[in-house]
Automatic annotation (TrEMBL):
Gene3D superfamilies: Multidrug efflux transporter AcrB transmembrane domain (1.20.1640.10)
Record key words, sorted: Cholesterol metabolism, Disulfide bond, Glycoprotein, Lipid metabolism, Lipid transport, Membrane, Signal, Steroid metabolism, Sterol metabolism, Transmembrane, Transmembrane helix, Transport
Transmembrane segment boundaries: 270-295, 370-389, 644-665, 677-701, 707-729, 750-771, 783-808, 859-877, 897-915, 1121-1141, 1147-1167, 1179-1199, 1219-1238, 1250-1273
PANTHER family recorded: NPC INTRACELLULAR CHOLESTEROL TRANSPORTER 1
Subcellular location: Endomembrane system
Gene Ontology CC terms, in alphabetical order: endomembrane system; plasma membrane
Organism, scientific name: Potamilus streckersoni
Protein name: SSD domain-containing protein
GO biological process, one term: cholesterol metabolic process
GO molecular function: cholesterol binding; lipid transporter activity
Amino acid sequence: MERFFWSFVSLMLLLNYAVVFVSAGCIWYDECGDGWNGAKLNCNYTGPAKQLTNVTGLDLLQTYCPDLYNGSDSFTCCSTNQLMTIAGNMDLPKQFFSRCPACYHNFLNIFCDMTCHPDQDQFVWVNGTRKNPVKSAVTAITYVIAEEFAWGMFNSCKDVQMPSANDKAISIFCGTKAEDCTPQKWLSYNGDISNGKAPFPIEFKIQNTNWTSPNKTVLVPQSHKMIGCNDTNSNNSLPCSCQDCQASCAPVPPPPPPAKPFLILSIDGYAFIMGCVYLTFVVFFGTYVLCYNIVSRDVFGLNENNESMYGRAATRIGINGSGRKTHSTSFIHQISPSDLNCMEKIGAKFELFLTQIFRRWGTFCAKHPIVVLVIGIVIASALAGGIAMSNVTTDPVKLWSASGSQARTEKDYYDQHFGPFYRTEQVLISRPANQQAKVTHQMPPPSIDTMDFSSLFDKDFMKEVLQLQANITSLVAVWNGRNVTLSDICFKPLAPDYEDCTIESPLQYYQNDPQNLDKVAYDSSGFFVVADYLDHFLHCVQAPASISDTTPLNMSCLSQYGAPAFPWIILGGFDSNNYQNSTAFVLTFVVNNHLKEEDNAIAEAWEKVFIDYMKNYKNDHMIISFSSERSIQDELDRESSSDVLTIVISYFIMFAYISIALGQFNSIYTILIDSKITLGLSGVAIVLFSVAASVGFFSYIGVPMTLIIIEVVPFLVLAVGVDNIFILVQSYQRDQRKPGETLEEQIGRIVGNVGPSMLLSSCSESVAFFFGAMTDMPAVREFSLYAAMAVLFDFLLQITCFIGLMALDAKRQETHRFDCCCCVQQKITDKVEKSDGFLFNIVKNYYSHFLMLEWVRPLVMLIFAGWFCVSLAMVFHIDIGLDQSISMPKDSYVLNYFKNLTAYLSVGAPVYFVMPKGHNYSSMAGQNLICGGVGCPQNSLLGQVYRASLSKNYTYIAQPASSWVDDYFDWLTPGGNPTCCRFNIKTGDFCPSTVKNETCAPCPLHPFVKGRPAQDDFIRYLPWFLEDNPGLTCAKGGHAAYGSAVELIANKTAVGATYYMTYHTILKTSADYINALQEARKIADNISESLNLTKPDEKVFAYSVIYVFYEQYLTIVRNTVLNLGVCLFAILLVTIILLGFDIHSGLIVLLTIVMILMDLMGLMYLWEISLNAVSLVNLVMAVGISVEFCSHMTRAFAISIEPTRVLRAKDSLSHMGSSVLSGITLTKLGGIIVLAFSKSQLFQVFYFRMYLGIVLFGATHGLIFLPVLLSYIGPNVNKAKIYYSSLEEDKGQNDTTRNQNSDRDILVDNEQQDPPSYNSLDNA
């Protein structure tokens, strides 16, 4: 692009300066001869300025040098030919600088004064001339400029933007980075022949003092009135916009300071508060314990009677010296109907109702096991048949983003109007540590300086990278019987004009041509190297959109596919903008994406070949990491497959334990009879059947399934199912059949006792999960639905099929038939008495007594309360998000890619600010709401994005947005040789600027008004702008940069949706991604508000491909609180109802589950488990499993009629503790430990760690804390239950046998140590 500009500069700098000082004269006039690069030279002339009379010349002088124009009385030192050369060579500067009128005006003045000023010999000195056949030409000059003049021009131009390149325009004209440019560097670079464009050396002297030439001639520094970029140079011009002129900007408000940590007295605020809460609890609880033990327990022996610890209870019901209970009939009869309140009656009757229903149902199932089994299996199988219709969702977008969410809606809008974001295949290349030798580059003469480059820039190494790139480009895949190459699937921005693929690579600076890497330019002697591939690189990283560099190589910086290659995308690991220090090359192959997944199959086929090739590629000189669009999904699939064995072993251990632990072995001789392997496996089969039925049911109604359901729901249902199985079986094993009672009636009675507890736990969990499905997060919602239905089906199958199976197994055992081989019968002469079991005896006779000791209970309360307070303080510090590397297998090649991406990448994801369809671009008012150039307000869309980029550390916006509107204005502006906008006068079709055809003429534009085209012209020529490829004569063609950014509708007569692209800063952590999303949305909302866009369908929104994955974290805390709160409320409601409207017990269950959850979340903080959708699913599951640890124990306590809370707590722990311990606790521990050996980091972090926490905290709270808590604040005895129990007891004392059809079992022997505490009204 610069070639013509430099030719212009060369012509203007060819000064003819007389050796002898001549006042008020010229140094040249007209043109003669050619310079070394073919540019015209100015003829030496030492006379006075000449009057310009040519009409064309006067028009050109008025246009380009208005300060020298004086009508027909204009005297200049330049001819019409020279002015025409100026006009021809101003095309490029005009395209870049005209968006800031003051800059363009000052820029012209510098060179107009030098070329045409009538007193030019006052400040220009000729250093040499060359004789031509007719006239001599100037070969060297010195130009003396006042500092105010030079700095005024520089300051007005230094911030002018290049919208298409997201860079500053001065970087093209300064030969260095924009931020390193100074007036001296700018002008010196223009006059240095090493730039390849200046026809001879031009020395710029920037000073305020006079300069004396070698012949003692005094030159006065040229000064000129400079126009500030925030000022106007005429009544018709406007000041430069804020984007192009910092002086035009209102002060940028400082970003808000980072949030200060919550501290109290320099201590973490949450820890301080919870510490105070705990100390308060210790004081009040300690006071209570001391008073209770001193006053109530008489620990100091102050009471002369010295009652035992159960003394007061003994006075009420009688406790003998050995501590054995001796029921006092008088105590039971102390309660009369008048003592019963309404709620106690309702609770007792409801308990009686549930017991009767379950007893009758259990008896029926035990009497008709085959019928029940057949019906249950048929129904479950019919439901499970829906699995054939199941649809497994693996798309992360559909998993974690609700269809109606903002990010999902915006993504769908973007995809529909612009197409889905591209598929990317990326390779990161660095060098081994032992190959880090610097590449020293000798700067072009006359400089003697050197510059060090990183080892990446070794030419041989770059050729190896180029060869690798070529190998990847030539990969061939086979899809549906045909060959597929990269060219078949890649994105081609200039198609159909050019069919080159978009490959972002440092080698694009050399157009992927090894011969361009080898190019070298020598000086005139042919000895000194004045430019090579490294000089070309240095220029291209400063001006990646250059058509021709400023070195003698005259090579283009544009990529092979016609677009600029931005250094912050293709290089990594550099500091600041020192790209020569880069430590990584980034190769990115951009592939087209499609809305329909099946249309991407061809790309996926090529990507598979690409992955295989990169896995096998070896090069000792390179360290390579890579990723493909399909890589993450492939690795997730491989991870799932690799962990199948781990999961199978985990479940096998749990199944084996269940099968063995269910058996109660009374004798070595009856081990094969007492075994319960068949029954245990049948129970496991019922669990699997329930999961299958749930999956099938929702498959029938079209609810998709996820991998989380497959991995988590079986674990959950197994926990619930195993607990119920152990309670049922162990209750039967410890039960003694009543006189005259059949086996079926015994099983029915046991089901009547334990059925309400099973109903409580299963119903609580199922309802909680159904309530949890109200969330809008798809993965959590679907998990909750599947889990709720699976728990419900599991309960239904257990109280039907499993009861039938238990009856059949009991009959097998009573007939002395072997387990697993019931056809074999063993002859046993001696009757084997049932025993309570080892674990039951340990819990009942030792553990429960120890736990209820007066010094143990306070200690338990203090420890659990302390840990709860500590956990609650840590909850507020749990990280939010999901490190994507955790989701990959430990041996995944993608992990290296993630690591290097974070280490090397210097720019974040692209972000698009989308203006929806409906905006009026044709009107000046509509244009001003968007644009960022001259005349555009600061609160325009592009103005606000620009201001956001000034605070990039806070807003995460790396740079101003590209603007097709501003580039279109420049493209449409009249002028240039030729102009950008041309048409064929014969056909009316568009003529690209690169086409030289006499039938092409400038577009017939209406006059611009304040730099804006007429409304009709705007839409008429916009399609041509979007078709035009950028080139040497017109750098503003919009095809490459904006071809997909503008949606043309109504047969290309109106503008639909458009976007304006910029980049995020580098995002490394989940917090960075979340904050970037939040800030981008704030910017978009501010834009909509400033533009007065109030309707939802017309508001500007920010879109990036990452947003749909990270939006969930904006509301993850709210969703967590809501989901867990709804589940807890459901459990509270169900518990209160099923415990006979016992609010007290419901609140205790709720408190215990809340403590388990808080302790689990405290563990998450300590074990570095972040809060995300996966951990949220586990927390919801933890609520369900916690019910199993709490509900059985609480119900046992609630229905117990022991006289004191301590005794009732011991009673409930004795009868339920062993079942909970041997059931859910030990079963799960065995399976969970296996998960620690998983190859998947995801399994280790979110399953092993969290599952282990769920089971350990659930078990400790259920078996340690809850009994102690109940012993302190448990609900009082339901007097109605005692009263009804006394009535049944009196009836039982008069009967020798029980009535088999009675509605309730009655306790008849108060001395007998009956087993389970599940005799709802009779036993405690």
